[in-house]
Write a structure and sequence with these properties.
The chain is an alpha/beta fold and 326 residues long. Helix 7 links the parallel strand 8 and strand 9. Helix 9 crosses helix 10. 45% of the residues are buried.
Length: 326
């Protein structure tokens, strides 16, 4: 049974990995309905949180039925990270997650995200400050990070130990370096080494290239991790969580949803996004999901091409009605 603080996550929790401009409240809720065990907010800037920026604060809002859920913050300044964690704690999440893994240049160049992997002592210092700040509220702190900066620097085994020793409650590791961005293949061997380290006693979760139910089962069996994070493979594919759980329980592949179910879920997500952000923004953000929602359907490509140009939910609904799935 994996735990973060006093929160039970189940025997092998499958997380929806936090992704900027993807894992907003409507999409998180949808993934939860399809079996995601743990949800995390889109990452929020510590500096913006401290300034009480409205758009950033709205990203820290979640519903009771999303639990267990964490709020993920990123930054490079110890004081602002500590204060942002205190503000986030007032929202009463189940944990605070520190993003030491984002590889995006504009984040890294400030020494935040995976940029901190070039200064491990600073990474440890900021993490310790946040852990100490959360003692009063008894809120656990977790970390998401990468193997290291590049092929010549992969200190994750030592880093995981050091972070555990200053009090983090769990660690999630993406099996790439910052230099790899999202290219190449995720290397899980060092994630497995962290998990096998006899000094480690906190949960170790793995991330990277887990894009099918069989792959989830393989990572569990081969590396012994306490759970996995599903990121890009969940975009437009929320039922991947149900498929993974079914395969882990039975060893059998679950059939893909019918076109009618996919259409229904797509339009439901569009509706919820519209309620949150307005139809114009929702129409733009839905475009990232269309390929996943309707992947593998014969003859769907012309419909998808038109969907990518649609600007309203009614237009999307009408386009989907034109597809003949027989």
């Amino acid at each position: 049974m994996a735990r973060i603080g006093n929160t039970d996550l189940g025997d092998f929790p499958i997380w929806l990995a936090p992704m900027e401009a993807v894992t907003d409240a409507p999409f998180r809720t949808l993934c939860k309905q399809y079996g995601a065990d743990v949800l995390v907010s889109e990452f929020v800037s510590s500096e913006a949180v401290v300034r009480m920026a409205g758009k950033t604060l709205s990203k820290m809002t979640f519903q009771a039925d999303e639990r267990p859920t964490g709020i993920q913050i990123f930054g490079h300044d110890e004081q602002s990270m500590r204060r942002a964690a205190e503000i986030a704690a007032e929202r009463e999440p189940d944990f605070i997650d520190l993003n030491w893994g984002c590889p995006v240049r504009k984040i890294v160049c400030k020494g935040a995200g995976s940029g901190i992997l070039q200064d491990i002592p600073k990474m440890v210092s900021i993490t310790r400050a946040v852990v100490n700040a959360m003692e009063k509220s008894h809120l656990p702190v977790t970390v998401k990070t990468r193997l290291g900066w590049d092929a010549s620097s992969k200190p994750i085994v030592e880093v995981a130990e050091r972070l555990q020793d200053i009090g983090i409650a769990a660690i999630s590791i993406h099996g790439r370096t910052r230099a790899q961005l999202y290219g190449g293949t995720a290397d899980w061997s060092l994630i497995g080494e962290v998990k096998r380290n006899p000094r480690m006693h906190i949960p170790v979760f793995g991330n990277g290239d887990v894009d099918s139910a069989r792959k989830a089962a393989e990572m569990k069996a081969r590396y012994g991790v306490d759970g996995i994070l599903v990121g890009r493979a969940a975009i437009g594919n929320p039922w991947i969580f149900r498929q993974m759980k079914h395969f882990l329980a039975t060893g059998q592949e679950e059939p893909l949803p019918s076109f009618e179910e996919r259409k229904k879920i797509c339009l439901r997500l569009f509706e919820k996004e519209t309620e949150c952000k307005g139809e114009r923004v929702a129409a733009q953000e839905m475009k990232i999901h269309y390929s996943g929602f309707f992947k593998g359907l014969p003859g769907f490509k012309p419909v998808k091409t038109r969907l990518m140009l649609s600007s309203s939910m009614q237009e999307t609904r009408d386009l989907l009605e034109t597809y003949n799935c027989s």
